[in-house]
Design a protein that fits this description.
This protein has 23 helices and 30 strands. By secondary structure, it is an alpha/beta fold. β21 and β22 form a beta hairpin. The longest helix is centred in the N-terminal third of the chain and has 18 residues. The structure holds beta-D-glucopyranose (2 copies). The site of one beta-D-glucopyranose has 9 residues, from loops.
Length: 833
């Protein structure tokens, strides 16, 4: 039957089926004209760009696409699918209950709970009219610096495999409730494979195939260097679970699979015929469809976002080409015409797409708005289930003196930025892509921790101060501090190679709030109970030491308030079942302790995989080491020790470095090579001319007008491993004449390819220099490393930025080994406003 349909389709219709456009970039009329097979909405993309879009607004658009697809003029009328990132509930939709992110579900160790959540999620997705959820993420996360750590269930593939099956079964809800009449048209031919029953939920997506959780240094979209056995036994396990449960779609991962030493050179998985066709569709027997990730084909060598023979030939069936879908269609038709992509490959892709649509019961299905429970806003809300999940996923890490659970009848001080913040408790992929830009008003259903505490102990007993400034903790029976990471998604959340896992260095205000409530006299004052929201385990020894009890609550979603029911005794003063969560990720004992995974030798975590206290466990956590890595991680031990100066600007640019200026209109303007010329930035905020500093014509005079931001910097096309200069106690050294003292603050940076950078404040330093007098400035490289520069990949060894008026002549710019130890070197802590 599928073969017969495919044979009646034109090439344009076939390529249309393979095309997935984003809802902001395609109208229903275009869906009809181009025979589009599917659409998606990206994170933070809603109908009419309305964050508060109602179910009926979602359904109106879904119906419009549906009707348009069926009104197309092809011989075969193929229904359209709409995919959505429903990754912790229907998480992009206003009014939906958001469940804990996967990292928390991992701690619950309960596939049945996961199945129920996935089933509820499918219901939520049907409310707004989509057919396809881009979930579950099956990454087995091996380096918690990765910004998507929270999207993985665990570092242990066994959990991921079991949950994958449960999640897919729950979302697809296939063939269950036989007796129930779902009210859909029955009796349609379901295609060649009658063993797959019509879905009563939505299609699931096993993503991202394969190896996303195993990239080096936890880099998003990075390189997985694993041998094939690890790829299969660790990163591949979730796919066995998902495929076994009937997953019909697999999303391809942004990462590469490359290891020169092992002779593995697959590169981007989007271009790997071996992984997509030979392994997934061949060895693993997957007969559903593969979908590329957001512009993922553009990252394949030799490809662009809309033209990629290699990805087509690798075996990708549906192409997520959000904006440039028209060019994709044109180019793909050309590639078939030129023979670069065989027609048989197109037919295979379309066969798979139609097969999935048949199995999902889309042929002959009713319009999205007519499928149960479409439009029922009440079906977006699953509070009880979410509350159960929140409680099951919280892990009790410390409970000295068994302070938890607290008595109800006492005055409670609540502090911390996370206590009254849906944004902090829901994290990324919540209404918006990054989870940023949300206020409490954006979450009409749910409960913050503060609200939960008020519900349990009564308003009159609760005092709240987010910063804890000016409060007297001794007036209270107990303090509850709710702290944590602020939202992020994907690579934005990467910690990177050199920044640390130390929470206090990334979020100093959390530690400051704790310091305000902790009693200076140990053993006196109220106990401090800390609830920690995070998308990953973090190095929190300082916070642990300041807390009598400490709960890792991960990113619990909209019902975080139900944590209050765990923190307090019940109304009759009983202890109750309490905490049951067990870590599904190992917890670090030091700021640079990553990767850290169960089974490593040696394995020396602070809290091992599987750790989690129960209410009755009597375990005392002794004071912990609070050492913080002074210059970040991975900054030493590589690159040897430099012995010679690194010239940057010495009587001219020292290749490969070249000076540029920039301002908002254009951040990168190369200096005019003519020494007599003046170079001015696009909006005139900064200009540069040749000048004399130590000798004739050796320097550049930089003038900031004070009319807006401007920067001057030296950059190379390639990055260099300059750790040897750090190892050698090097400093950035330059001869400087201040012509006009800085009116605003002066920042200096060393960049490791923006936005990787380390910035210091040199305002005080340059204000202290006598105007008109040449002086040598030495800034230890360690100051930049501590501020975030990854010295292994430096491309910009010098940068000055200011917004106010300032004039500076500079010459002889170098990195000099040993100069940080000179008595006239600037101390890092003198680099302040
Ligand atoms: C993410 C996917 C997501 C897709 C659509 C990508 O950037 O990697 O997980 O499904 O965007 O929003
Ligand atoms: C979209 C996300 C997508 C991301 C990829 C964003 O603009 O909203 O869905 O994952 O781009 O870079």
């Amino acid at each position: 039957m599928v073969a017969a349909m495919v044979s009646r389709m034109t090439l344009a219709e076939k390529v249309g089926q393979m095309t997935q456009a984003e809802i902001q970039s395609i109208t229903p009329a275009e869906v009809r004209q181009y025979h589009i097979g599917s659409v998606l909405n990206g994170g933070g993309s809603w109908p009419n760009n309305d964050k508060h879009a109602t179910p009926s607004a979602w359904l109106a658009l879904a119906d419009a696409y549906w009707d348009a697809a069926l009104a197309a003029d092809g011989a075969v009328k193929v229904p359209i699918m709409w995919g959505i990132d429903a990754v912790h509930g229907n998480s992009n939709v206003f009014g939906a209950t958001l469940f804990p992110h996967n990292i928390g579900l991992g701690a619950a160790r309960d596939p049945c709970l996961v199945r129920r959540i996935a089933r509820a999620t499918a219901e939520q997705v049907r409310v707004t009219g989509q057919d396809w959820a881009f979930a579950p993420t099956l990454a087995v996360v091996r380096d918690d610096r990765w910004g998507r750590t929270y999207e993985g269930f665990s570092e242990n593939p066994a959990i991921t495999r079991a949950y994958a099956a449960a999640y897919v079964a729950g979302l697809q809800n296939a063939g269950e409730d036989e007796g129930e009449d779902e009210g859909e048209d029955e009796g349609e031919d379901e295609g060649e494979d009658r063993s797959v029953r019509r879905l009563r939920g939505v299609l699931a997506t096993a993503k991202h195939f394969i190896g996303d959780g195993g990239t080096a240094e936890g880099r998003d979209q990075g390189v997985n260097p694993s041998p094939e056995a690890i790829l299969r036994e660790v990163h591949g396990q979730g796919y066995f679970g998902a495929l076994g449960a009937g997953a019909q779609t697999v999303m391809i991962s942004f990462n590469s699979w490359t290891n020169e030493q092992l002779g593995i050179r697959e590169g981007k998985v989007h271009g790997s015929r071996y992984l997509v066709t030979d392994v997934l569709k061949g060895k693993m027997g997957f007969d559903g469809l593969t979908v590329s990730d957001w512009n993922g084909i553009g990252q394949v060598a030799g490809c662009s976002n809309f033209r990629c023979a290699r990805a087509l030939n690798a075996g990708i069936d549906v192409f997520m080409v959000p904006a440039e879908w028209r060019q994709f269609i044109e180019n793909t038709i050309q590639l078939v015409g030129s023979g670069e992509v065989p027609m048989s490959r197109i037919d295979d892709a379309v066969t798979r797409i139609l097969r999935v649509k048949l199995r999902a019961g889309l042929f002959g299905a009713r319009r999205p708005s007519e499928r149960r429970p479409a439009g029922d806003a009440g079906a977006l809300v699953h509070r009880e289930l979410a509350r159960e999940a929140v409680q099951r996923s919280a892990v009790l890490l410390k409970n000295n003196g068994n302070v938890l659970p607290l008595a109800r009848n006492q005055k409670i001080l609540v502090v911390g930025k996370g206590a009254d913040s849906f944004s902090v408790q829901t994290g990324g992929w919540s209404l918006s892509w990054q989870g940023t830009g949300n206020t409490n008003a954006d979450f009409p259903t749910g409960e913050t921790v503060l609200a939960g505490i008020r519900r349990v102990v009564g308003d009159a007993n609760v005092t709240f101060s987010a910063t804890a400034q000016g409060v007297d903790p001794t007036q209270f029976g107990a303090v509850i501090a709710v702290i944590g990471e602020t939202p992020y998604a994907e690579g934005v959340g990467d910690i990177g190679r050199t920044r640390t896992l130390e929470h206090a260095s990334r979020y100093p205000s959390d530690l400051a709030a704790l310091n305000r409530v902790v009693n200076p006299v140990p053993g006196q004052g109220p106990p401090v109970v800390t609830i920690f929201f995070s998308g990953r385990p973090a190095y929190v020894n300082k916070e642990l030491n300041r807390s009598n009890a400490f709960i890792a609550a991960f990113l619990p979603g909209t019902e975080a308030g139900s944590l209050a029911d765990l923190v307090f005794r019940d109304a009759r003063g009983r202890i109750g079942r309490g905490f049951t969560g067990k870590l599904s990720y190992s917890w670090p004992a030091a700021g640079c302790q990553t990767p850290l995974n169960v089974g490593d030798t040696p394995y020396d975590p602070l809290f091992a995989y599987g750790f989690g206290l129960g209410n009755r466990d009597q375990v005392t956590l002794r004071p912990l080491d609070e050492t913080s890595p002074a210059i970040g991680c991975g900054q030493t031990g590589g690159g040897g020790t430099a012995t010679q100066d690194l010239d940057i600007y010495v009587r001219g640019d020292a290749p490969p470095y070249q000076l540029y200026i920039g301002s908002p209109a254009n951040w990168s303007v190369a200096l005019n090579p003519d020494p007599s010329a003046v170079t001015t930035s696009a909006d005139g905020n900064i200009s540069v001319q040749t000048t004399d500093v130590a000798v004739q014509g050796d320097g550049r005079k930089v003038t900031w007008t004070g009319t807006g931001p401007g920067q001057i910097y030296s950059q190379s096309q390639a990055t260099a491993d300059l750790r040897g200069y750090l190892n050698a106690r090097g400093a950035l050294v330059l001869d400087a004449i201040v012509g006009q003292s800085p009116a605003g603050s002066v920042k200096m940076r060393v960049d490791c390819v923006w936005p990787c950078l380390g910035e210091v404040d040199a305002t005080r330093l340059f204000r202290s220099l006598t105007t008109g007098v040449r002086q040598t400035v030495k800034i230890p490289l360690q100051c930049f490393a501590a501020a975030g520069t990854d010295m292994a990949i430096v491309n910009t060894p010098l940068l000055f930025y200011t917004e106010g008026a300032f004039q500076l002549s500079l010459a002889n710019v170098r990195w000099v080994p040993g100069a940080a130890a000179d008595p006239d070197a600037t101390a890092c802590d003198a680099l302040v406003p």
